[in-house]
Write a structure and sequence with these properties.
single chain; alpha+beta; Heat Shock Protein 90; five-stranded mixed sheet; 62% helix
Amino acid sequence: MSWKEMSRVRRDRITDAAVVIGAAGLSMAVGYARARGVWLYPRLTSVVPLALDHVLPPPLKGRTDLLVPLAASALLWWRRRWPVPIAVVLALLSAIWPLIPAALVALFTAAALRPWRTTLAVTACALLPFALYLALHSHLVGVRMPAAAPTGTVLVGVLVSAAVGWGLFVRASRESTEHARREAALRADHVRQRERESLAREMHDVLAHRLSLLSLHAGALEVNPGAPADQVKQAAAVIRTSAHQALEDLQEVLGVLRAPLTDTTRSEPPQPVLADLVHLVQESRTAGMRIDLDESVTDGATAPGATGRTAYRVVQEALTNARKHAPGQPVTITVHGAPGAGLTVEVTNPVPEGTRPCVPGGGLGLIGLQERAALVGGSLTYGRDGQTHRVLARLPWPA
């Protein structure tokens, strides 16, 4: 098993054990390499161990140089849980015992896990004993400072600064990684939201068209119950086909909606193209609508997919609205375009007498079409012009 494959808790425990053993070994090595009397405060380094010898049981007397580094280094096992208290305790004890390695590790942990204000306070506590030592010996007359004391104090200050700086760097790197992760999550959410909005538009355009056809045929049967058997059979077949196609379209859209965003194998719902306009018009004519189609398109097969799809949706939504708001009225569809000249789609129908200009709850499909046209770099306008309702879309078609 590689290091990355291990669980985080297991890796932390292995790291903590290595840190405790390493800090204890280094602290004991420093203690044996230097005489106790040349540490920062000679009197304290003499009195405190003697006082501990009176408290410790007989087998442990005279072994403070071994026991204190071991006990202090063992505190590093809990440095992630209580980084500040452990760093302060080890920093203060390092003025009496050679615990600099353990104190540096504790300072690094505190800087990596706590805010910079807390880190600044802990660093000040760590440097305070050394600053007091230099200040006291520089002002006391007749007190001789060891020759190596200034150099050792400066070295400790450099080590403390390095440990704290490294901890701050690790903390900044971790925060930067977390910020990048959050930004990536926000971008993914934004992409997912845009996809959901696109699917909602598709669902509205497709289902509204299918259901309006179904309603039209059902209404014809309702108002003419005595129609010939052949017409009733034909209308029932169209109703069944429209309902079946509506269910299929709904299943396709929901299938894409349920698929994970990262699923690269998912299939997108089939999208209409400009050539499908003829079938769309024929379908509506079969439902009983009177439609006049004036199509003059050069090289329609070369039209961009987004442009052709938008033109199809414009005509589809206009026909759906005509069936709902102007039943029985003729519809005129004009489609002109060529590469380099753009594509113009216009759908008009007379407004029946007594029809209100705005129907409550309506117009959402046309608003969605305006957004769709803007996405491909075109424009769409709609509204009433006298006794005629007009939907006009101008879409780009590069040469």
